[in-house]
Amino acid sequence: MSRIKLVVFDIAGTIIEDHGEVVRAFAKALTENEISFDEDELLHWKGASKREVIRHFAQRLDPKLDVDGKVETAYRSFRSELEGCYRGKVTPILGAVETFRWCEDHDIRMATTTGFYREISDLILKHTGWSDFFSANISSSDVRQGRPAPYMIFRAMETMEVLSVHEVLNVGDTPLDLQSGTNAGLAGVIGVLTGAHNRRSLERNPHTHIIDSVAELPKLIERAF
């Protein structure tokens, strides 16, 4: 019997397909507000708190400048663009539902963590009909600091009264997912290759396992945990 009590899943690129919605929304919002950026660097920030990402690029214009107004204007533009994307088609990662059901059958509880704000994560879970699978849904707006800090994972554990990090797995598609799981000291820090980062990119970060997709998670748990 597995010692794992909780699996924490990232959302975009991990349990739903990522078609570049987030990067497109960032690019539009930053361009409209005359904030310079590099698309490769935007990719590096995938998985982070979205407001923190905008602030990062805005402050580079002039570190001494008060950028609060510009950040909020760009953030509103980002939200509008992203919500438009996710009101359309949301495509589950192949095998995700089967993995969720396997976890349920094996008394393993599930949570989501995401750099999205609450409305977007709720919209995605409603679209997919997955809300009942997850006992906690934690967004970056629920904590003081998003990834790579471990606080969203800890908030999920607190919500679900899971005491030991040695009973928790974190699954995500970005370096920041792996960094946050490592910073939390979890039993398993698992990267998946269904997002924007390839194996080489993920393997440069601390992790316990890299798998092709969440569809492989049940076999990994049976074998390694």
Structural commentary:
The protein has 225 residues and is an alpha/beta fold. The chain folds into two domains: 147 residues, Rossmann fold; 66 residues. A six-stranded parallel β-sheet has the order 3-2-1-4-5-6, sandwiched between helices. The N and C termini lie close together (9 Å). The model has no long low-confidence stretch (mean pLDDT 92).
Would you kindly provide a brief summary of this structure?
The chain has helices at 21-32, 39-44, 50-61, 68-86, 96-105, 118-128, 151-160, 175-184, 199-203, 217-224, and strands at 6-9, 109-114, 136-139, 168-172, 188-192, 209-211.
Which features characterize this protein?
225 residues; globular; alpha/beta; Rossmann fold; six-stranded parallel sheet; 10 helices
Order of strands across the biggest sheet? 3-2-1-4-5-6
User: What's the CATH H-level homologous superfamily of the largest domain?
Assistant: HAD superfamily/HAD-like
For the record, the CATH class of the largest domain is Alpha Beta
Task: Let me know the average pLDDT.
Answer: 92
Percent in helix: 40-55%
Number of helices: 10
Give the tally of structural domains.
2
Question: What structural class is derived from the secondary structure elements?
Answer: alpha/beta
CATH architecture of the largest domain: 3-Layer(aba) Sandwich
Order of secondary-structure elements: EHHHHHEHEHEHEHEH
Between the first and last Cα atoms, what is the distance in angstroms? 9 Å
Beta-strand residue fraction: 5-15%
The biggest sheet, with number of strands, parallel, antiparallel or mixed sense and barrel status, is: 6 strands, parallel
